[in-house]
Amino acid sequence: MAGVVKMPSQNDFARYRDDFPVLARPMNGQKLAYMDTASSAQKPRAVIDALREALDRDYANIHRGLYALSQTTTQKFEATRRKVADFIGASSENEIVFTRNTTEAINLVAQSWGRTNLKAGDEIIISGMEHHANIVPWQLLHDQIGIVLKIIPVLPNGTLDMDAFDGLLSDRTRFVSIVHVSNALGTINPVETIIRKAKAYNADILVLVDGSQSVTHMPVNVLGLGCDFFAFTGHKLYGPTGVGVLYGRAALLNAMPPYQGGGDMIETVSFAQTTYKPAPARFEAGTPAIAEVIALGAAIDYVAAIGMDNIAAHEGMLLASLVEQLETVPGLTFYGTGPDKAGIVSFTADWGHPSDIAMILDQCGVAVRTGHHCCMPLMQGFGVEGTVRASLGLYSNVDDIISLMNGVTKAHKLLGA
């Protein structure tokens, strides 16, 4: 019937899994169950092919050459900028800056906007569950100009203490930088509420959202969120490494000074003075990751064709099953048990160290992550050195959960005796 959209079935997702060549290879003689997507997602053939083609067929430097190869590559590069803008709901492709990763995007904002607009005593609010990439850049700013860093506490269930957030807002608050989905816990933070409260307190407070995990697991619309900046990285979104994205409102980006200097970000250069292009070019000094940006465009095409709502539903079903089954294993403690979660499960066992559990899982063909997950303050708050983290992707399936459960059960027998 016209107007009816058919939702992908589990058979469809089984077919999507076949798009990822690495998942067909064994690990330690076992069928691979890749459950470390939160660290870095595997790549579909469409991305691999786009990367290869960008190097095989059309490679040339961009923005400078008048010859056909350069023009073709430039068009493909800039087409990705438009795809990114559409994917996250930005007003214009001119609000999309290509960086190396989320880390560089946050550092860009801290050093360009922060060094220009903040002074000693100004306050920045972050949360207790931030990745180091959203802690250290602000600590550097503290050391450089004396800004004050204030922390939203994390409750025992791995959610933010929103009452405490209200109390942190003050006349000195200038900026809030918050993770959308915790990479260590899977907690989906109420960023819309945080942004609304911050803007209601003072409309001049700016908000950056670290979307490294959210763009992988759910639809994102930056205009709907109301954020001023949004950052994510390509390799978690089934794209290549070495490319990330900073979204910033056009008026903010064009008022910010360059973060780095070099070729392709200038209008004119003399020994007396240099003038700069408008955003986004002013923040993209030097030759960028050309093939990687083009391949990121292929990754966005791939997930957009499946539908982020569909991916979220698929992962949500698997997450519920994974948690339900892990809860049957004696001695596990779970971190991040709030009601709003993406496809990440983090746990410890009273009968075994996370590293020992992960080594046994490795022998069972199961790839998980252990440690502090670049969230040392969060782990310290929970009183643990680290956790075992299993994270889902669009290619995850019930067989992965069975393999994980078999491995955890084996670890319990070996370590818990």
Automatic annotation (TrEMBL):
Source superkingdom: Bacteria
Segments forming domain Aminotransferase class V: 34-401
ATP-binding in keyword set: no
Keyword Lyase part of the UniProt annotation: yes
Function of the molecule: Catalyzes the removal of elemental sulfur and selenium atoms from L-cysteine, L-cystine, L-selenocysteine, and L-selenocystine to produce L-alanine.
GO MF, one annotated term: lyase activity
EC nos: 2.8.1.7
InterPro entries: Aminotrans_V_dom (IPR000192), Aminotrans_V_PyrdxlP_BS (IPR020578), Cys_dSase_SufS (IPR010970), PyrdxlP-dep_Trfase (IPR015424), PyrdxlP-dep_Trfase_major (IPR015421), PyrdxlP-dep_Trfase_small (IPR015422)
Catalysed transformations (reactions): (sulfur carrier)-H + L-cysteine = (sulfur carrier)-SH + L-alanine
Protein name per the record: Cysteine desulfurase
Organism from which the protein derives: Micavibrio aeruginosavorus (strain ARL-13)
UniProt similarity note: Belongs to the class-V pyridoxal-phosphate-dependent aminotransferase family. Csd subfamily.
Record key words, sorted: Lyase, Pyridoxal phosphate, Transferase
Biological processes annotated in GO: cysteine metabolic process
Major enzyme class: transferase
PANTHER family cross-referenced by the UniProt entry: CYSTEINE DESULFURASE (PTHR43586), CYSTEINE DESULFURASE 1, CHLOROPLASTIC (PTHR43586:SF8)
Cofactors, names only: pyridoxal 5'-phosphate
